[in-house]
Batch of 3 targets.
Target 1
Amino acid sequence: MTPAQQRRFYFPAWTAAARAHGWRMASGRCASHRLECWANPQSNEIYQRIWVLAAARATAEIRALSPDDFRHACHIVAIGHDKSSSDLTNAETDRIVALFRILAHPDSLAAAMAWHNPAAERRKRVMWYLSNRCVESYLVAVCRHKFGTDNWRGLDDRRLGQLHMTIKNRARGQREPSVPLAPSVALVPSDNAPF
């Protein structure tokens, strides 16, 4: 994920989650306080685990809780370990952003679906890549050759992943980036030109 993508995707989701829980600094301390019970039982379990991990991180460094403690606790809950946001893979970022969205909007069905079904999020990313970055006719031809069907959108997750890797490894199947053409220069025959 590029820094620009992070600014558009990861940090806005984090800001919404932090704002929803008051995870901000005020007078040198984190302004939030832990709730006994939050949202539904599954979300409450996640919320309580985030608080425990954030408190442990702050205690280990012998300082007060900060919003960054909560953000890194979310990383641990989502992907199983702490990692810098600049080092996250796309799949890890999807998973963490899904958690941020649940924290920001606990009643959102879309947020719950993204969190509980990460395979659907991966499929959505692969479908976007194939639809927007690849030549349709080439996709159909490779799909027909590999899987015996023209319907690449109907492939199961495993086969769609294979198609994705095949296309990514073959540069000719990808669309050329739009590059503005230089203005053409009219050729004027010189007096010595053999025309």
Target 2
Amino acid sequence: MSPARLRISCLLLVTLATLIHLMGGSVAWQAAGIVVLLLYLMTLKGQLTRMAKGLLCAAGVLTLFALWRSPTPGQLLFEASGRFAFFATFIVALSMLRLPAYRSRLVRHCGQSMLLQPPSRRYPILSLGSALFGIILNIGVLNLFAAMIEKSNTLSAAQGRAWVREARQRRMMLALLRGFSLAPLISPMGIGVAVVLSSLPQVTWPQLAPYILGAAALIFMAGWAVDYFTGPHPPANKTYVTPSLRPLAQFSVLLIGIVALVFSIAWLLELRLPIAALLGAPTGALLWLAWQRRRLGFGGLPAAITAVHRQLPWLLSPSANEIVVLGAAGYLGHVCVGLVDTQQLAPLLAVLDPLGTLNAVLAMLMVVGLAQIGVNPIVTVTLLVGLLPTLGIDGLTPELIGASLMVGWALALMSSPMTASMLILSRFTGVPATRIGYRWNGRFLVAAIPLLALWFGWSPF
């Protein structure tokens, strides 16, 4: 067996064991998943980025500290390892949707249709479209659409005007970045929802939805307004024929179907939404693949299963760093919360309690601020979402905490030059990530952050 196939086999066993545990509550299956997860991590030698290695080292150091300081280290570390396995399973489940998407004519037609819209409509359509595609493709939408933008934004398309070409590049890349960053907010099966709901079992997605969807609308409108007022607005080409948005409408229907499938599974099996997503995403991916291969007989299902088996190493191998970063962050957050003695936080509570709901704004800004110095938002959100509810601050409800942290995560993706999303855009454009985050996006952040602070500080919900 090749090393790649061995890694994928371990990862699938982790996924299977974790799903059985989540469905049936068997601790034995959870233990089996954790053991195989350790084997999987051992196979990743030489495959990880500096950030992933750093988080694993931090997890190792904190494990030793927990063995020394925790009164029940075995239980704490077992539960934390289970969270690592859960997030690994979540990444695998959502990654399955990328397989039919990358081979879909509909996806390519959608991308071309969005990019060829006139300047007055390009920002809202590209921003909304990248948010929708981000739900399925995750960070892959940046690679896909950024490549399409660079290919279509030629000097001849700008009628020989270099300044128009540069302006189009800036405006389209920012629309892409902001739209992608909204995906964790608007998607009920996104990683942000999984982190928050798995840490706050008393909160449901319908309770989060008013906060996060309202914040997403504010971010979208602020981005659109800044794009319009900062321009420029070159004269329109009157002979240009605007392409139809029908492919985008068809994709929206497909996406609604997948989300409806996840909610149906949650309702029928009485599961929490993140667990239902672990079942719904692969099922939706398989049905989508079968539809693409329906002419091959038996509804395309045998061909779809064969395609999944053949493409799994190609599909999941690039996810190793994503799995380690998210899983290790969940592990670190759970262990940190377990080691914190809330009684020792009484002086901090005396300062924070009078602020009430404004603590949600502070939490949002903390996620954004720490991201600027290289602290991954996943780590900050996982830690704060476990810690803040234990303080019992008046007015600071669990759903408000979760929503503010998710919005901080989205803003961090739009601003920090050290996030993967910013580094990808920098690679395609040749523009330094600091310039994209602070110069290109600076006016948007100045407009959006006060609006969001008002939204959470004086929320109507």
Target 3
Amino acid sequence: MKIVEMSLAGVFRIELDPRTDDRGFFVRTYDRQIFKDHGLSTDWQQESHAYSKQKGIIRGLHLQLPPFTETKLVMVIKGAILDAFVDVRPESPTYGKWDSILLTESNYHCLYLPRGFAHSYCTLEDNCDVVYKMDNIYNPQFEAGIIWNDPNIAIQWPVSNPVVSAKDLKLPTFEEFKKQYAALNFNF
């Protein structure tokens, strides 16, 4: 397992090391000690599995507000996604910036996303399965988000006409989000 820091503060790509033979493969997807050695959260409270049945679905940008912010460990077990995220921590040197990572069932990469990020992804294939761990309990009263196509963030999505939920289409722009939640502290 190799842990590589990405361009936004606190975000890491986890490169897994599968052992393969004629039967298939075995791969360790999480190792508490290796994460601890890199100063990464290891106190996972929940794990979720999301299935998307078609290519071109965008989920997000989602996040939990304090005190229910979440660190996430994201992995694709079937299919491929472009995972995109925005730093919403006002104290961060990368505040308001976005980055992305390609996660596929065959590249054996995971995304470690610290608290204070709006998270989303776009399916690149039909029948995608995404599994992620969170270090906090989900609370629906504290969910928030940012519209997927905010022109001021300008995420470079691989689709121009995605499938987006009605709920996600009502999310605010980043400017509206900042006005509404300016006083919140996302760093813990």
